[in-house]
């Protein structure tokens, strides 16, 4: 517990001091009134006697009294009335407020706790001071009486005789009338007050001699005062101010509120009456003192317990009816002791010492002797019959009884005499003797079941032991039993409270803080909020005062909250605020959100009541933090209270005129703030849409999209400027939390800013007049920012004036509704009209509290204006809200004709596009890049493009190999850039689109130059998003053969084409009709078509059509850059098949579906090398028409499929999925099908082809001729356009081991390809595409079946490594040789 400078022993000794009565004449009051004090007040500052006295006890030993304190009261003193008592208690707490704290370390945390509790000490002293003196104890009774007269009286003896008569009347009153006397024969002394300023010293001495002669010299004293002259200095300090307590006028409005309070009864009850307890349903007092109860309910009607010392009322009840803020009589301007000088002060001190040593101490010695003798003589004598009966047969214990005893003690009975003796020992500071006496008395009272006296004896015995230094568990138990007896048996709450206050002092001094807190909590009840608050606060401090490892911080905080609540009910707002603030230290950061919010809410309301408007706003804003656990109704109450506090603060604060206050609601999601600087959007027009690829309120960036835009921009820079900078930074038009550069916007162009607001509460919020807060800094003459001339719109909004529109034109949202626990993105447009720097600082709005059922149009409720900061919590590198305004620049807009997003893969669409410069500056060098050039084609009136040249460059142009990897990559990059980028100009143009399933999103990026240094070029983005449906699939198996025409062998190409309708959507009925097939090649032409069924048939879903196209090789030389076209009409006469492949839009899409350079830039060059190594190298184009029977929509499209080599199946849209086992080949020349495009493409082309001509069956008589000569003609064709050398090796036979028959050869044979080769065969040289017939002779020695084709192998050698291969002829060429 926090302590003041006074120790526990000093407090107890000062609380139980001898009380001296003063009976004064009227002239005495007149004399002392010159000093603005009464006579008791005149003496009170000097009653702490710095003096040591001695007296003898009955046993003859000497007892020493040190530092005696006297309490001087007027003989007519009466306890305060209930209203005044409560006012004194409340003022003691109110005017002793002190918020000084000290820091302590507990449980690893630092807490600020009160440095001292002056208010508690003052309340405790006042509480003990206003108590009514009881007849069961004598420490509060008058021990002596000083009769005071003056030297100015004409007959001083008559004056004192009259005062003696008054004293005799007061002495003989029957109890419990006031005043209360210690016994029937108290010490009576006479004081002659001498007014030095009026009466001469000689007269005073004469009068004093007369007085001593009349009443005896040992009982008379004289005190000179008012001796100050004009030359004397004033008394150094006002010694009387702290002891003067003036009661307010009885007509004060404070008393008017006490209609429910019981008044002092006119006649008081006998000494020990049976008590009539006010019951509320049941015995509420017993329940109110249970240790586990911490009441927080409304106070009951207060009652008064000071009218009679034995009644169970409380003068410290709730102060709901007492205005603690009303001040008492202002005595600060009163001057006390104005007529006194230092000699008078010394005279007063001397008088009190002489009085104590010469009169009071001898009287106490005499009384102790008499009481000791009386108790010893009468001890053991039976008292009344009832007392004797209870002594022998009574077994009840004080704590268990339910009511007071009916024992009636006379005033001079031995039991009360024993109590008087104990009180005298205690008042003299003889603690051990007092303990022995009280201990004896408590046994007597217990035997008589005199429970009130028993409780009092226990209380004083324990305190005596504590003061003697012999306090232990047993004496602590005395106080515990005393408290319980006061409460449960005697129902005397005020004495239970007093005993608790004294017990706590003893317990805490012994280190028993937990037991002290337990007793303090027990005494809290509903009958007194102030008392409960004081005790709960002390209990909390006890919990915190234990040993360092046992300090109970959570209990401390909890009981501080309870104390704050009771302080608030008692009207002590400052103390309530202080207690809640102490508790908040523990709950803050603890994770106990409900408790923390309750404390913060209470602090906010108390701060508002104390007119701390700013603190109230801050405290009430805290419970509105994100993720509140309260139900919606509670959250609405929190919000309503906050808004009322904020409104009051705004009305009283002058600071609001220069800035807006940050509001806790809603919460800005700073990480989701986005800024777009892409120029103004085009005006809306029917059936047209603008380029809208930038989405300012998109949740996050798509990495794939970013990679696409970056690559397209690099391609545009490559084409427009010839090279890409070594350090390339892509242009940013959309800024978010991942960017680290200032947004750039040309002067006069709007900026789109998306701000996401989050409502963390479960109730709706209404925002009005929402707009951005900005600061604009212009540029000075040197081009730097001029911060001194910055312009803010926050000041204008705070003052309610319009903002100048010649700098920035902003947008204001009139009303926004945020649903509970939801996020909403608001998009604002801001147009800077001057060059400079724009800083977006926050969002200004008016928060409306319209209660439950609020809507966007609600006009009632509380409205507060504030802002939310958009810069708080942002990383230092984030500059998206610091916008640089550059000079005017060109601005491109693109508008497109509307197109249906539903499309069939391969369908050709035509989209009209309009390019317009809406900026004030001319633009130059307009280029457009597309992500998939095989799917998008840009057609402008003045830009004629040779589509076949594009196809030639893409598929047929010879690539010069580069030995360096960097060189290969650069070459591939330049080709890709040229393929993706097309030049354009402002005006109308046409976009031809042919999306497919792998390119459902087509990106278009426009580039144009501005001529500005800060932004040399600008970009405009657009994305076509289609819902692609697969309907047509093509599979081609190209094969070749040799055909004899006019006795010459020629190559024939056979394309086995399978067309499938693969539409699987049950809601659509898409039928496919084939129109035309085209073959684009430099080596082959197709001539005719063979269909498995009618070629004009319509393909329904899940149907297939097999076609075989036949063609031949082009033997004539084709010029460089030219591609031969051959077409076959499948549906002859169809309107859509009239135009052939050479006319747009079909000529724009002659490139097959392939991986875009953007998706696989690293592999493009290698693919180009590989595709030029095949023998077929042709593009097959199939045009078709689709009819949707459900919607009636028709579409024309075409599929392209690149054929690189023979004997390899090429797949179109759909990829077959098979197992890992390869299919069984029909023969060795047939391809082992590659079922996926992802597998490595193994070339199946032969360098040469050959055809064997020989007899199939021969009859030969081996008896006649041992050998059979068989003529064989080999027709060999060079399939490549380069010369090759062919060696027919006849020394090896593939099937020698399996067939058992060996075919030999004869004729002119040559050595192998090498000079030292042992191989024998035929060697020939073939020019490109040359066909030659070779005659050879086979030799057979026996009849049988021979595989002629396996009797030799063919080895080719050419200029390229892949031509150096060895191949075997067709092993199905059989020869049957029979014996003739």
From TrEMBL:
InterPro entries in UniProt: Ig_TPPC8_1st, Ig_TPPC8_C, TRAPP_III_complex_Trs85
Residue span(s) of domain TPPC8 first Ig-like: 702-901
Annotated ranges, domain TPPC8 C-terminal Ig-like: 1248-1351
GO cellular component terms given for this protein: TRAPPIII protein complex
Any coiled-coil regions, as ranges: none
Superkingdom of the source species: Eukaryota
Stored PANTHER family: TRAFFICKING PROTEIN PARTICLE COMPLEX SUBUNIT 8, TRANSPORT PROTEIN TRAPP
Protein name: Trafficking protein particle complex subunit 8 isoform X1
Lineage: Eukaryota, Metazoa, Ecdysozoa, Arthropoda, Hexapoda
